[in-house]
Amino acid sequence: MNFDLTAEHQMLQDSLRRFLKYSCNSETRNEALSSETGVTSDLWHAMAEMGVIGAFFTEEQGGFGGTGADIALIFEELGRANIMSPFLDGALLSGRVLAAAGELDRVADLINGDLQLALAHGEPTSRYDLNYVRTTSVNGILNGRKAVVVNALASDVLIVSARISGEVSDENGISLYFVEKDAAGLTIQDYALIAGGHAAEVTLDGVEGSLIGEEGKGFALLKDAYAIATVAQCAETLGEMTAATELTQEYLVTRQQFGRPIATFQALAHRMSDMLIEMEQARSAVIRAAGYFESDERTRDINIHAAKNLMGRAGRLIAEESIQMHGGIAMTQEYELAHIAKRITMADHRFGDTDYHLEKFMALTQP
Amino acid sequence: MDLNYSKDDLAFRDEVRAFLATKLTRELSEKVRLGGDLTKDDMEGWHAILNAQGWLAPNWPKEYGGAEWNAVHRHIFDDECASAHAPRVVPFGLSMLAPVLQKFGNQLQKDHWLPRILSGEDWWCQGYSEPDAGSDLASLKTKAVREGDHYIVNGQKTWTTLGQHANMIFCLVRTDSTVKQQAGISFLLIDMNTPGIEVRPIILLDGSAEVNEVWFTDVEVPVENLVGEENSGWTYAKYLLTHERTNIAGVGFSTAGLAAVKRIAKAEMSGGKPLIQNPLFAARVAQVEIDLMAMSTTNLRIVSQAAAGGAPGVEASMLKVKGTIIRQEINDLARRVVGPYAMPFISEAVEGSNEPLPDPHDAGPVAAQYFNNRKISIFGGSNEIQRGIIAKVKMGG
Predict the structure, then answer these.
(1) Chain A 116-175, CB below 8 Å of chain B: which residues?
(2) Does B384 touch chain A (CB under 8 A)?
């Protein structure tokens, strides 16, 4: 057993951390936040050039990585730097669907930084259930509505799931389609997200789609892509939690009240200790989810569900305690922690929340 | 012991319900329900409606134009107002300054300022916190130096809620730096239109602009605006803070919030069933409801005692801590219940536009409210300060 990073991973982490430290600050973040689509294209291209997107895919898929460990390492750094760029939705989640379906030309464009994607799968009544699809496809003509589609406006093309057969909750009978952004009958109602970035309600009214992969076999592709995206989300949140914890620790030893640093008040010191303990739990949960990603599906899923549940709980503690122990300053838009806390909290609304993953974990582990 | 409302209480509740049904417009209550930013006109309008009814100042003695209700009636009123989504009455003049003036102000001050609070002629804000004096309020540095008939005030206040609307501010200022911190503080009433005052907004993490910084540069304040005695301000400040805390249990907000969570959980589907039938989620809701039922009774017990003559002391701190924990837990449920629809930043709702919201349950900006209400365990003496007070009173030291 060895918990050290490989030499390659160590190099990747060092260069990524250095790059993000220099190229991302509150100015670039505010620029992304106030831009029309929530994306700054400079950063996207620079990161693609560094090979960040290539590391999301295996060599057979045209990349040079693609393992759970590769992806966790990258997303933790993105989270630590509090990056508001849609690598998770625009490249990893959608890209892994395409790679598994053999759409390698598009994957190559993605790796070069020349393509942005959005996966339109969830629906207004599906909550976090991956198998609930009401949107229909009849001979590739799509009708339905997709909910909170992250990065829809900035994407060059949409990937849309639709049902060709079966009941609304059947895993069989879901197909995937490319839908061009200028397709007739497509409406994109864009909005900003509270934690940065954009999403949209996507309405399909007799829209023409072109099939991706095999007819009716979309669920397996979605499940695998959501699995790696969940690992990435957990790793990103871990990075954000690290940043929040560091800021809080620094504040406690700096801020003076009653003539001494507030870190010297035991009531706060012990809570800081609890945060640090939970950080170690969170790190181990992410290491497990990443490390078992290439195992059998059951082992993989147990560890992903465990991680997302634990990150939901630990994340809430870190976000809320960081704000509380800072006091008023953390409530202001201007202070870095506000952004970080929003991202940690809103991560619980992606790819299934704390309770959703607890239920899935229970279903897989009950004796 | 009788836990039920008396006949008189029930009649009063019906009267309040009838009043709200006729006087509270649907437009205004919807804005409150959806967490929209109320305009100055919205707040002043509601203030005037309550004043016309004689219900604006439930806790003031009748001699000053108050309703002088007993604790149970005040509780019923708060509860009904929250369930009906009535706007919260701006508390700075009515519940914070007024009790101080009534107890420590001179006759001229009472005659001049109290009627103007009721009429809405003055909008008060609170000048307490400073950047380096938050929990440690007594370390405040804003200085007032007496020169003839005036004090000259210099310094900075922060977290001034709704200061952008106010024409008056009550301030704690340092009038003696040579003595123990608490012994050199005075309580001043300052006209916001005096030259040398600048108000700068602070944008909060949910995008709202409700708090401000207030800067004072050589601001002249007439000496008749000193409340009580010079250097006795800390006594008045502490008196005011106990009043600030009594309203902070927020039973009404929590009751209304929990009802909204249940309404949405019945409509939201998870795994093919309404979310409220999901045992994990239902357990979360039930747990908070149990806590809220008990806290509501604690609140009644404490306010009844206070009405019978005992000043709300350490119990007010207990109510503040438990009340805010429960409210924040309900805010947490409110964001969970809508699932992915917690993510959109619903600025349209905040600005009161008619754009259709993406969320099918019409829940309003639940995530923004969750983030905004992190403040309730920070302001008015943080929960850590309250716990310190409880421990000190119960165990000394």
Answers:
(1) 122, 124-129, 132, 147-148, 169
(2) yes
Enumerate the H helices of A24-59 as residue ranges.
26-34, 41-49
Superfamily assignment of B124-231 in CATH?
Butyryl-CoA Dehydrogenase, subunit A, domain 2 (2.40.110.10)
Cα–Cα distance for residue pair B135/B137, rounded to 1 Å: 5
DSSP string, A335-362: SHHHHHHHHHHHGGGSSS-HHHHHHHHH
- Closest Cα partner for A227 from A93, A72, A123? A93
DSSP H or E run through A21: helix A7-23
Closest to B336 measured CA to CA, from B368, B372, B367: B367
Gap between the Cα atoms of A203 and A336, Å rounded: 35
Please, is B310 exposed, middle or buried when counting C-beta atoms within 10 Å of its C-beta (0-12, 13-18, 19+)? exposed
B7-89 and B124-231 share one fold = no
Domains in chain A, start-ordered, CATH in brackets?
A: 7-116 (1.10.540.10), 118-216 (2.40.110.10), 219-365 (1.20.140.10)
Fold of B7-89: Butyryl-Coa Dehydrogenase, subunit A; domain 1 (1.10.540)
B196 interfacial to chain A (CB closer than 8 Å): no
Q: Which of B34, B101, B36 is nearest to B65 (CA)?
A: B101
Range 341-380 of B in CB contact (< 8 A) with A: 341-347, 358, 360, 367-368, 370-371, 374-375, 377-379
Average pLDDT over residues A2-8: 88
- Say what angle helices A7-23 and A41-49 make with each other, to 10 degrees: 160
Which pLDDT band holds residue B308 (cuts at 50, 70, 90)? Answer: low
Cα A232 to Cα A75: distance, rounded to the nearest angstrom: 6
B134-164 residue pLDDT tens: 999 999 999 999 999 999 999 999 999 999 9
- B268 at the A interface (CB within 8 A)? yes
For B88, the token pair is: 């919260």
Domain locations in chain B? 7-89, 124-231, 248-395
Q: Does A363 touch chain B (CB under 8 A)?
A: no
Cα–Cα dist B115/B20, whole Å: 24
The span from the first CA to the last CA of chain B, in angstroms, equals 36
pLDDT of residue B236: 95
- Angle made by CA atoms A282, A287, A289, in degrees to the nearest 5: 95
Between strands B168-174 and B124-127, the pairing is parallel
Name the catalytic one among B80, B130, B210, B244: B244
Q: Nearest by CB to A128, which of B139, B339, B368?
A: B339
Q: How confident is the model at residue B353 (pLDDT cuts 50, 70, 90)?
A: very low
pLDDT confidence of residue B246: 55
DSSP code of B344? B
pLDDT for B4 equals 87
Classify residue B5 as left (phi > 0), alpha (psi -120 to 50) or beta.
beta
- What is the rounded distance in angstroms from the CA atom of residue A65 to the CA atom of residue A72? 11
Nearest-Cα distance to chain A for B19, in Å, is: 37
Of B205, B344, B377, the CB nearest to A324: B377
The minimal CB distance from B343 to the residues A256, A257, A346 is found for: A346
- Report ipTM (2 d.p.): 0.95
Global confidence as pTM: 0.94
Question: DSSP states of B379-396 as a string?
Answer: SSS-HHHHHHHHHHHHH-
Q: Give me the amino acid identity at A29.
A: R
CATH homologous superfamily of domain B248-395?
Answer: Butyryl-CoA Dehydrogenase, subunit A, domain 3 (1.20.140.10)
Q: B37-42, long-range: CB within 8 Å, 24+ apart, which pairs?
A: B37/B208, B37/B210, B37/B350, B37/B351, B37/B352, B38/B87, B40/B123, B40/B165, B42/B87
